[in-house]
């Protein structure tokens, strides 16, 4: 079988890709940033390597692997690595690249372009203001419905500018009135760049996932976020698969949005869904393998293998049936979430959220006994990555 190289086996995403391909007999070479990477212990990894110290060394490492392996499929996990590899596609001619090109990635990383495409495709978006100056924000502030959520339209580019100015980038920031909003935005005056201001959307995270080629969805999956870290929104720590009989109309609009963006490959279209009103609002598109990928694989939609077949070898597979109601949790951030709710509930930035400490603790413990529960790292068939991760956590 065509070999595969996975750049980034330090996370549950990279590990899920290794397991998905390895279970189907694909010889997988994984590249890790350090010895703590759980993917290095997977039984499905043919060869594990430590990554070179810099970008140039990483490219040379991939070129050397290409000469040794011959034609191979190259998977990259992080947006930073995808951007690096896209800048040097000419040096990766021996690989079949399992990630979108720079034009498509730039379109989904820029939220202004994403939202413009969403409006054209009939996808609902939250009310958003992009101030060019502090005066713009001051003029808009009295008209907004609070709380509001602040996000950067281009977080990678903004992160570079803010670091140079000695400022920290908050992925999301909640402001509960106009005074709090303007006080927060003033810190960015020296940079001259400001985050987007979005009106708060109630509900929970709903993810719709696609493998697209030539405008056709060859695999579809969806899940609901039950818990996140931090609790007000971030990494999914507990999620549940949702059957395709739900949200069918929204899914069609999601696919229309991807077609509007001329998308090819893997994508996650993420919404905030309010079950009381039956309304959804687009948050973002992830143009890469997403953090909760282990849930899709456990439920029966083996996206890495399906992408390998379709994009790597031109062999489309039928849409797999999958199990609805399957749950999956990421134990370390899930435990951090529980600790925050038990001991620091006042630190939760979203004041709209209400938690019962007793219910949270009982739910955390009861989920160990839930038959439908699976885990981001631990599997009975491949336990060593979990044990490796646990050992390094204890050491730290």
From TrEMBL:
Transmembrane segments: none annotated. It holds the Pfam family ATPgrasp_Ter. Keywords: ATP-binding, Ligase, Nucleotide-binding. Residues 115-312 form the ATP-grasp domain. Gene3D superfamilies: ATP-grasp fold, A domain, ATP-grasp fold, B domain. SUPFAM superfamilies: Glutathione synthetase ATP-binding domain-like. One of its GO terms (molecular function) is ATP binding. This is Carboxylate--amine ligase.
């Amino acid at each position: 079988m065509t070999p595969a190289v996975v750049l980034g086996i330090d996370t549950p995403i990279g590990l899920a890709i290794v397991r998905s391909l390895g279970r189907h007999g694909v010889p997988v070479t994984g590249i890790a940033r350090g010895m703590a990477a759980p993917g290095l212990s997977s039984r499905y990894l043919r060869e594990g390597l430590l990554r070179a110290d810099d970008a140039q060394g990483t490219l040379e490492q991939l070129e050397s692997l290409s000469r040794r392996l011959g034609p191979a499929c190259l998977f990259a996990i992080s947006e930073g690595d995808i951007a690096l590899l896209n800048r040097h596609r000419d040096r990766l001619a021996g690989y079949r690249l399992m990630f979108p090109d720079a034009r498509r990635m730039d379109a989904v990383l820029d939220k202004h372009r994403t939202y413009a495409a969403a409006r054209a495709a009939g996808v609902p978006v939250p009310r958003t203001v992009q101030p060019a100056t502090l005066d713009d924000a001051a003029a808009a502030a009295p008209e907004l419905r609070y709380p509001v959520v602040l996000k950067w339209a281009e977080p990678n580019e903004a992160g570079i500018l803010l670091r140079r100015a000695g400022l920290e980038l908050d992925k999301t920031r909640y402001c509960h009135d106009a005074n709090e909003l303007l006080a927060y935005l003033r810190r960015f005056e020296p940079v001259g760049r400001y985050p987007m201001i979005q009106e708060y959307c109630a509900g929970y995270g709903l993810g719709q996932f696609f493998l697209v080629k030539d405008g056709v969805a060859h695999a579809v999956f969806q899940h609901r976020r039950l818990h996140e870290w931090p609790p007000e929104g971030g990494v999914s720590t507990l999620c549940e698969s949702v059957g395709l009989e739900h949200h069918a109309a929204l899914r069609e609009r999601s696919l229309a949005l991807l077609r509007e963006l001329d998308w090819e490959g893997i994508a996650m279209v993420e919404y905030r869904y309010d079950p009381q009103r039956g309304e959804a609002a687009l948050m973002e598109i992830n143009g890469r393998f997403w953090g909760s990928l282990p849930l899709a694989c456990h439920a029966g939609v083996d996206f890495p293998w399906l992408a390998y077949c379709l994009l790597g070898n031109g062999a489309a597979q039928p849409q797999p049936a999958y199990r609805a109601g399957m749950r999956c949790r990421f134990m370390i951030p899930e435990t951090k979430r529980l600790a925050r709710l038990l001991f620091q509930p006042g630190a939760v930035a979203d004041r709209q959220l209400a938690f019962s400490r007793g219910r949270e603790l009982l739910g955390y413990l009861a989920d160990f006994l839930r038959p439908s529960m699976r885990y981001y790292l631990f599997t009975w068939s491949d336990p060593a990555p979990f044990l490796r991760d646990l050992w390094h956590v204890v050491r730290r």
